[in-house]
Amino acid sequence: MLSTIKKQILMIGEKPMQTLLDRKATTQTHLQNIPPVVYQTWEVDYFGKTHFAQIEKFRDLNPDLSFELFAKEKLETYMEEVWGDHPIYPIFKKSKFGPMFADIFRYCILLERGGFYFDISKGCSVSVSSLCAANSTGLISYEAHDCVVIPNMKAIERMAHPEKYILQWGMGFAKGHPILQRLIENICEYYPYFKGKSFAIPKNAILSLTGPGMFTKTIREFFNESADENLTQAGIDFNGSGIYSLKGSWVRYATVPAYTTANSTIIVD
User: Fold this and answer.
1) How much of the chain exceeds pLDDT 70, in percent?
2) How far apart are CA 243 and CA 260, in angstroms?
């Protein structure tokens, strides 16, 4: 971790912040089911110079994909207009931490529109579409971390790495994919347990309700019931090509505090 003084010094070189605009695809894609667009979100639409350059590098690697950024106001407008009458919307509105907004948003927009989602601090060293077959209906990958709770036997037989968590910072799905439908339903079902409850480590509760914990649970349920050969399972960390932290991405916390610093508080009203 960088010291506070060192961060302050490095921040000088990261300014002025760069505004990130949406980008349209410039080449054709081979994908047939997953729309060729990557959705991303952050509180604001400007980033430090290094992070901005890395985001643009990731985009350059994917000329067949469009990129659309949802900053806070745009994200909130989308959720109200498209999901305002759905039970997930009050949960979205009552959430206390930014990652929960981003979690719910990614599931909702991919269900409604289809496409890919990547956290703004993440990327891949290969093109995203190269990880998918033309007829892929979804793209998932696994974390390197073991999950000590094993899935049911049918799911074990169908999952590439049943002993791992499924990573949630990057994914792709065809519009209306049943995994996303069930995922949103699961969040709504488990919400009453988390409502108004204080957690010593809020981060863990967030991971359980809207993050990789719930994502892993839902996909295990899906594989327990279905054998979907068109759902691409791209190994661990996208077959080793995943970039967990883009260079300079720490600068984004200069404007928005990291949720990992919170303790003993509720995550949702």
Assistant:
1) 93
2) 20
**Residue 264: inside a domain:** no
What are the residues whose beta carbons fall under 8 Å from the beta carbon of 261, sequence distance 6 or more? none
DSSP assignment letter at 268: B
For residue 193, is it within any domain? yes
Q: What tens digit of pLDDT does each residue of 71-87 get?
A: 999 999 999 999 999 99
b/e code 54-67 from CB counts within 10 Å (16+ = b): bbeebbeebbbbbb
Using CA atoms, how far apart are residues 5 and 160, in angstroms rounded to an integer?
44
Residue 265 lies in a domain: no
Residue 159: pLDDT above 80? yes
Q: How many residues does the chain have?
A: 269
Q: How many domains does the chain have?
A: 1
DSSP states of 6-20: HHHHHHHHHPSPEEP
Quick check: is 269 in a domain? no
The answer to whether the CB of 137 falls within 8 A of the CB of 176 is: no
**Domain range holding 22?**
4-257
Q: What is the pTM of this model?
A: 0.94
CATH, residue 102:
3.90.550
Q: Which helix (H) or strand (E) holds 170?
A: strand 170-173
Cis amide bond preceding 16, omega within 30? yes
For residue range 181-218, what is the model confidence (pLDDT) as tens digits?
999 999 999 999 999 999 999 999 999 999 999 999 99
Dist CA 43 CA 147 (whole Å): 31
Parallel/antiparallel/unpaired status of strands 37-41 and 115-118: parallel
